[in-house]
Amino acid sequence: MPALNRFANIGFEDFRRLAVDESLSDYERIGFPDSYREGYEASIFVDILSKLTNLSSEGARVLDIGPGCSELPRLLIEQCRQKSHSLLLVDSAEMLNRLPDEPFITKEPARYPDCVDLIEQNQGKVDAIVCYSVIQYVISDASLFGFFDTALSLLAPTGQMLIGDVPNLSKRKRFFASETGIAFHKEFTNTEDAPEVVFNCLESGQIDDAIVFALLQRARTAGFNSYVMPQHSSLPMANRREDILIVRP
Would you say residue 1 has pLDDT above 70? Predict the structure, then answer.
């Protein structure tokens, strides 16, 4: 998808620059063309709430890793206000400056997990972790398993973590190799060209089934329950992205 390719191969430092670029929309600042997020984020948040059920409890401790600055973190902030949650936000100072300040919010300007004090203070205490549209940048910017293991260590008993909007290359290939995906591609590109799909090849820096299931197995081996979950069909990239839910028993 050419529009999305504009934001390919970027990382934490790039997002810092995007955050202060006044020529961009809030969606572009978080790495998406407007057409991929505008008008969808309320539905995305409903999907998040359906999986992170602890967000609908009262008085929880919530952590958002890489919230960005679009409508989505504002919806989370409002949910935390209504449910008397405390909310930890970890992102660059440039991104966090675009979000409102509230008494129940603690902002940590850092690249997660390079926030040692916050991690030490919240070991085993977090009831809900949101990490949405972030994991694809971790794979190039940091240690994926180090990032993942640190997040697991923060979960309280019955705590939940949603690694959302995972761009699984394997799922994408399965979709575009299908009749439905070929028709989608032709309509989207306004051509009669079928998408090019190549299976059984290593594509460096991409998340695929192997990485998704490695994370699931790693969590289970560490004593957590883990699940791969579909996104609601109404979401803009549900046909090629999915979510990972981790639950501490």
Answer: no
